[in-house]
Amino acid sequence: xxxxxxxxxxxxxxxxxxxxxxxxxxxxxxxxxxxxxxxxxxxxxxxxxxxxxxxxxxxxxxxxxxxxxxxxxxxxxxxxxxxxxxxxxxxxxxxxxxxxxxxxxxxxxxxxxxxxxxxxxxxxxxxxxxxxxxxxxxxxxxxxxxxxxxxxxxxxxxxxxxxxxxxxxxxxxxxxxxxxxxxxxxxxxxxxxxxxxxxxxxxxxxxxxxxxxxxxxxxxxxxxxxxxxxxxxxxxxxxxxxxxxxxxxxxxxxxxxxxxxxxxxxxxxxxxxxxxxxxxxxxxxxxxxxxxxxxxxxxxxxxxxxxxxxxxxxxxxxxxxxxxxxxxxxxxxxxxxxxxxxxxxxxxxxxxxxxxxxxxxxxxxxxxxxxxxxxxxxxxxxxxxxxxxxxxxxxxxxxxxxxxxxxxxxxxxxxxxxxxxxxxxxxxxxxxxxxxxxxxxxxxxxxxxxxxxxxxxxxxxxxxxxxxxxxxxxxxxxxxxxxxxxxxxxxxxxxxxxxxxxxxxxxxxxxxxxxxxxxxxxxxxxxxxxxxxxxxxxxxxxxxxxxxxxxxxxxxxxxxxxxxxxxxxxxxxxxxxxxxxxxxxxxxxxxxxxxxxxxxxxxxxxxxxxxxxxxxxxxxxxxxxxxxxxxxxxxxxxxxxxxxxxxxxxxxxxxxxxxxxxxxxxxxxxxxxxxxxxxxxxxxxxxxxxxxxxxxxxxxxxxxxxxxxxxxxxxxxxxxxxxxxxxxxxxxxxxxxxxxxxxxxxxxxxxxxxxxxxxxxxxxxxxxxxxxxxxxxxxxxxxxxxxxxxxxxxxxxxxxxxxxxxxxxxxxxxxxxxxxxxxxxxxxxxxxxxxxxxxxxxxxxxxxxxxxxxxxxxxx
Length: 860
What we know:
Elements: H1 5-8, H2 25-39, E1 44-49, H3 56-67, H4 77-93, E2 103-108, H5 120-132, H6 137-145, H7 147-150, H8 159-168, H9 174-188, E3 194-199, H10 206-217, E4 224-230, H11 232-238, H12 242-251, E5 256-259, H13 265-275, H14 289-297, H15 301-313, E6 317-320, E7 323-326, H16 341-350, H17 354-366, E8 369-371, H18 372-379, H19 383-395, E9 400-407, E10 413-419, H20 422-431, H21 434-452, H22 460-469, H23 473-489, H24 493-507, H25 514-535, H26 540-556, H27 559-575, H28 579-596, H29 599-615, H30 619-632, H31 635-638, H32 649-663, H33 667-684, H34 687-703, H35 707-724, H36 727-743, H37 747-763, H38 770-783, H39 787-804, H40 810-835, H41 851-859
Parallel strand pairs: 1-4, 1-5, 2-3, 3-4
Antiparallel strand pairs: 6-7, 8-10, 9-10
């Protein structure tokens, strides 16, 4: 444990030695060895584990202190010369010392944030790294290689660029975010290593764990070292997924672990020798304290340091004539310390003045790190007074340390402080009266809300926490929804669902009023979007959210919110191929849009109804709706609809109009409409719309039997789906690729690809287009010479068609069934003839019999 006595001591007049770490020499050596591997391009992920106070943070701080370059400060000339000599010697003996100093950045998880703010420690670390790097190097790198991350770092880009990025990146998936940052870090570390320190992962969100696993599993070289600290006990108590993630990575050799244990009696003796030196007078009698301190603290480093600070403060250990002495009997020492560190910290708090206790109590409510302005709101004093009081505690080495400064959007500038250890904040927070904490959370939340104004959504997770704990539930629900929307923009769907579900629970504590119903309606709509994104648009949970939203629309008589509700329900039933219900909902949506006279909603309604009609086989009526939707569509006014309705309605109308025109016998017009759809998808730069147009274009060219064109579109679709993390479109691309492979003579491989895609889609509950995909499987089976398997697939396709009423492919299905039946009969006939003994020809053989005549005879 690092003896950070200049911070931890409660004795203001004591002169302390330089920080020193004892008992961790092996661990430090291991860390430096793993860093050398990272320098050579072998990425390293290290989990540093141990109970509170065991020294995880101190170990990392000491390690990083040794990693940094030597800097010439204000030391005397002798020390400067010694450093220069050391550096020259190091370069001569170890050329690797010329490797640039690693970038070092840190991010910390925060326990108070409930469901967790998505990627909180990583975004914090990237923000710090961006401020450290010169000439805007990090924003430039992210802009080119990881725009999905740059958009969530407002401090690194201007608002107009951020707004444009939001539009361009709408609909991107989590897989793309993970892949982009992994590639960006590989490029960033090509010439200079990076040490990324993530603290307190036992409070982390699941999105951060997914990123950590993705970075650890990448086979590409990267000069990257990730240090992740956590408490195993907290992970087990919370049933956190970190344990499972850690074990999975460790099982496959993707990470290292340093499990820190308690200090031995010898280590404590070493600490005492450094903490209380006696010069040349010999061994200090204080060394006999080591056994008693070890017995009392069990070798917990944090406890040990605080106990020794306390003994100095109480005058049990004093400095006389240049050396340290024990003033009382050795046997009396244990009596001055309580049995646990928490009780010990409470004793230290009780010795503070009432004003300092109140300040620290408010600070514990503000967080492990906090702005003096937030504490000032809780204390009810000017910020300058709070800063002065905090600085006094910092100078005396009591509980707090300075963490720089912070400026809020309203212009408030104040110093940031942090507790030495999370235990300090936890003990202070636990001992505060419940009513007092409620009032403080409310005050601090209101101060943050006022300071951020229109930008309050940027700290929605913080505000939701303060208002929930401050019993301001209406505002807590509002910010929980905002936090959910932020998580959705970061593709952290688990965190989004957590925030939104918690908001829904808090709503039940409020009186049943129109205002509550309106808030729940908005929340249920956002939750439905999150559930569809993470569990597929055939998700029963999403349908439940939309059905509840529909009831609320009736309750509050809100027709405008009913549009997205009807769209969500129509999408759900359409995805499950329940076309009669989907059609009824689409007709209701169209009637609503006509009554409200909203052009945007009309475009969506025509597209939705046309889509369902097309799957039901009514190509004429479907094309009419697609044409009307296209006529109403204005790219400048309606391009934002892609954010609400999955993809761009103009692209949807043109794409489905193309396949409808094919069904109507207009192949040239169909191809022209599809070309327009593909171009519009590129113009609006919406990935979901691009994927949809590519898939439908592949379907159109499949109808035209243009195999190579199908394959080209499928390759583009697959690349886009992988990049964006669109699992549904990736499965669709797999099916079409399998069909194309079969047409190119790779029938067996093609059949396996189609089966894989079908299985992936079926697992999500999606039945839409299944008859078509089963027909493609049957055709691939025919190419593979397996008509029986093909007929089985067609039987399933017929059953789905009869159950759902989707008769779009009925004619083609029966045609293909006839071909496979003929192929099967031909195979049976060949087998039968092969097993029958040859019948002798009674006629005498004739010389010069022509092949043509033989062929005619065989045909007859």
